[in-house]
Amino acid sequence: MIEVEHLTKRYGSHLAVDDVSFTCEPGTVTGFLGPNGAGKSTTMRMICGLTPPTSGRSTVAGTPYRKLGNPGRRVGVLLDASAQHAGRTGREVLALASITMGLDTSRVPERLAKVGLDSTAAKRRLRAYSLGMRQRLGLAYAMLGDPAVLILDEPANGLDPEGIFWMRGLLRDFADRGGTVLLSSHLLREVEAVADRLVVIGNGRILVQGDKDEMLGEAGTLVRAADQDELETLLRQMGITGTRSADGSILVPTDAQTIGKAAAAAGVVLLELRPAGAGGLEEMFLRLTGNGNGASEMQEVVR
């Protein structure tokens, strides 16, 4: 399990991560989504003990990462597939990691084969690896110690469609056997295919989080009015709390018929009224983050 509680990171006057909290449960894949500069990588680095938080805390299996004994046996991390010595071979990278973790180096060929790196690739130096090969080696490194938790930042970069499909199956199988996966990726369709839960971040703050199926299939109704102030007043009168997206529409936790009838009775002119999950994860992401630029946040409509 991964628990993140009120993590905040400030660099001088810049607030990179602002009071972020979420939990990743065993047996699940959590998709961690957000545009460039939203705070995803900084959050993941804080979880892994690489960046000290300004405030807040995070734990893996109930313990801060820096206090884990032999952490590679508890949590597998892939934050930068190029963060290995370019002069070493793939086999040497995993052999050194095995020795560091107290593992039998005889398992290295098997671990390389599991991620699709054959004996020829195992002998090749990393400077000759493609980005996709580095990603496969990084996944092998992360899973070398048979950890219960995986933290992966853009693991599909450089993989071809076959490799992406393979990685999806690998992560799904890991979670189905009780593992915990925190996955950051820009490949929204792949995240939609493999994730159980979603956490969307923008401008350093959590915009929305929850069960994927509920968010995409039963997320309520998107409504937009010619006069948004009139709509917000109507929602308050109905006792409904909604959230405003970057595009100005409001997500409300009720059905379209209820909102439509109330708007008609109150004389509120609606420009948009539809199920929120109709366009899948990609539409939801773009709506929440302002077409991917992260410039706007979700705003709560006061009850």
User: The CATH topology of the largest domain, please?
Assistant: Rossmann fold
CATH H-level superfamily of the largest domain: P-loop containing nucleotide triphosphate hydrolases
State the secondary-structure class: alpha/beta
Fraction of residues in β-strands: 25-35%
Q: Helical amount among residues, as a percent range?
A: 25-40%
Number of domains: 2
- DSSP summary: helix tally: 11
Q: So what's the CATH class of the largest domain?
A: Alpha Beta
* SSE order, one letter for each helix or strand: EEEHEEHHHHEHEHEEHEHEEHEHE
Uncertain parts = 291-303
Sketch the major β-sheet. Answer: 6 strands, mixed
CATH architecture field of the largest domain: 3-Layer(aba) Sandwich
User: Radius of gyration, Cα only, in angstroms?
Assistant: 22 Å
The order of strands across the largest sheet is 5-6-7-3-8-9
Distance between the termini: 34 Å
Shape: elongated
What integer is the average pLDDT? 87
Total number of strands: 14
